Amino acid sequence: MSRPPVPGDRFRLASMTRPEIEDARRQARVVIIPTGSCEQHGPALSLETDTVRAEALAVKLADRLAPAVLVTPPVPVGVSEHHMGFAGTLTLSPTTFVQVVLEMIQSLRRHGWRRVFVLNGHGGNDAALGVLSTIVMHEMPDVLLAWSGISPLVADLSAERATSTLRGHSCEVETSQTMYLSPDSVRPDRLQPGTSDRSKLQGPAALSRSNRAIHMALPYDQVTPTGALGDGTAASPELGELLIETAAERLAAFLSRFAAETIV
Q1: Are 236 and 176 in contact (CB under 8 A)?
Q2: Is 165 helix (H, G, I), strand (E, B) or coil?
Q3: What is the distance of C-alpha 132 from the center of its chain?
Q4: CB of 28 closer than 8 Å to CB of 12
Q5: Angle at CA 65, nearest 5°, toward 63 and 68?
Q6: Cis ω for the linkage preceding 7 (within 30 of 0)
């Protein structure tokens, strides 16, 4: 028995047949690679939160910009060493993560695509994506690669709406986005405030957050006992809709220009 069609299947490479892809390739100038993680997200969000947010937003963008964009399968495990103190978290080394995404880009290039956008749902992947960008620029100068996170696209709105003075992981921002994009990934009855006040941080955790310009890596279980920074109980699907739809609007404007850009 064949499975019922899933919304967005016509944009997902893995759900398309070879002839369908050959037809789509004539108009789809951009391919989005969603990257996420399999890591703890506090007591109320599933470990796939980063991945489902990235893939759902990628499909939303493909729908909005059809037929100019296709979406690869997501990379479901990321760089999550800082969450390994919590059960269930899986991690790749930065080197492995870079290699996986690099080889996906190499595959796309061999099929004729020269514009790739990585939509990243997990901040722990950021440093590795910066390295990846340099590798692609050096090894594949005929490929334009761009990438972004999700929440950074709407940091201005988050700052206006969020109640916690300390945010960053399973807070009202991320929880709201997940409520809107993937409600089944949220256990509303298990939502509880995480570490939401900077003054509650002690020792190395307080030091690591004392200056945003200074970076200091710490295991997350040394930062917050619940695994969450920020108050997920303040989240709402309405806030999630505002954040995601605004992010989609801003990204769509960029990708429209990205698709048309000439590669020197």
Answers
A1: yes
A2: coil
A3: 16
A4: no
A5: 110
A6: no
